[in-house]
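Honest question from a wet-lab person: if I give you the sequences of every part of a complex, can you actually get the arrangement of the whole thing, not just the pieces? Trying it with mine:
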Amino acid sequence: MARDYLTDFELMILLAILRVGEEAYGVPIAREIESTGGRTVILSAVYAALDRLEVNGLVSSTLGDPTPARGGRAKRFFRVTSSGLKAVKQTRRALTRLWEGIPQFEGGRQ
Amino acid sequence: MTSRRPPRLAVALLERFVHDNEPLTGDLLEDCHDRSDTWFWRQVLFAIFARSILLIRTHPRMTAETVLVATAMLALLGFHAVVAASLMNQLLVPNPLKWDPGTGWLLSVTVSCVATAVVIGRAVSRFHRDHRVAAILVCGASATIAAFVNLYLFVPTVPNQPFFPEGAMQIAVAMVFIAGLFAGIGSRSTCESLRPV
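Yes, you can. This is the full assembly:
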């Protein structure tokens, strides 16, 4: 059964795919998360999350051509589906609502 | 970008255990050029761990059976390795009480054992994929019986003697028998894999 919410890692992956664009496969997705998220990424964890997102219909993937730099292995390109985009927006709205009204974050204090 | 190569052992482990995830393997090989060996090893070990967890969750029974078979095989081979060492010791330190059955007898019995084992192995190969526990029991029982029969054939005058070192010949024949079992199982499995669908 598909979940109605995204984990923080799933959200980061979806946003990374959207940022990378057409060339979104494992390496640039992981690097995007590392550079913008400031965290070390395990590639197999990225693929595990991507598989989960694909099962839930939030991303789709296509296999590219094998390249010598990858030992003759094909790339798997990902793109966010309309359901995925909707999930990202819903999560953003939910997080924004959660941020509002917290006294510790009011008036520029952190 | 430097053109450094990833650790061979890590690549071999990746090929062996994550062979069905071509994009992940390709990504790791592509991204390793400007990363450290530690990074690559961490990625590979985590990929193998994640793959194992996925297998356990999706195929728990098959995983348990595979572990059982692997453990049984390791125990069997370990046992025979110890016995092989005992046999070498027996050859290096000749025991005057040892009964020599003669080369002709030894050869004929060994050939008979191999032939019997191959036949049993091919029979076991019919059901070893679906009934692995039964296959282990049949292989173990047939090897034990073969060793038992050889003990009585070649050491008939001292039936209750200690297992070591007089049992070395029995174990040597048992090892040949088990090799025949593997050959029988493997030959049929190879034939099946080559059969057109």
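Two things worth pointing out. The two ends of chain B are 47 Å apart (CA to CA). The helical segments of chain B are 8-17, 22-31, 37-58, 60-92, 103-124, 132-154, 168-194.
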